[in-house]
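Recall that a protein's primary structure is simply its ordered list of amino acids. Everything else, from secondary elements to tertiary packing, is in principle encoded there. The following example makes that idea concrete.
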Amino acid sequence: MAKKLGYLGPEGTFSHQAALEWADGRYELVQYHSMPRLIEAVDAGETDAAIVPIENSIEGSVNATLDTLALEADVYITGEHILWIKENLLVKKGAAAEDIKLITSHPQPLGQCSKLLAEKFPEVRTESAASTSAAAQRTAEGDGSVACIGSEASAALYGLDILIPDCADEHSNCTRFVIVEKNMSRHVTGHDKTSIAFTLENKPGALYGALKLFAGASINMVKIESRPLKDELGKYIFFIDVEGNIDDANIYFALEKLRGSTEYYKFLGSYEAVERR
């Protein structure tokens, strides 16, 4: 029986495209319709793994992913995948630019293609959709007057023409996805990343003291971010990624020292880091 990989549906979204790329035929793909439900499915053993977006190079972190991983599910990050986002203007088969009366998509792609919309379609109305896939379906079912902004996967799924490829304002747009599993990875590659989440007592120097542990152990910190805790105004949870694996002695002992100075601590996983091209 093939292993199952959960992803944030529906089909034709960039999350679906990332799942297809990473799975590469090794998993049966299963779609879920909310981030908490997707990650909880791994925790409950409904699916062997999930691929979830965690940060975008333009929009920043995906807060629902961070919150669920840190506070709501007992799972680990075991890998990562970088998806390069290419927004495309899609139309019904045979439709032309002059036929377009409405352009629809999820609000993010609409915003990321604002120059295209302003310069080439200034008189065309835009409308937000629940997802890029829903917009593509509407385009496929229309009379040619509706276009959408979406992925190559959406074009293939709904039989659409790519009228203008790679039409986003920025061409370096990428999303980092992480692979989530019930058990932590014990695979050490020599090019790894470790992710943690923690809270600190609200006192002067608390965060400085925590970060000083990494500097003192010559550990390179590649990301730090704070998110507000939901139960108390003014209290925050910190997310940190560092280079190295928990099985590296300097990483292990630095994290053990950090754990002793935190109010809440969660090891999110050590996994192979993927280079951004």
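The radius of gyration is 21 Å. The first helix runs from residue 14 to 23.
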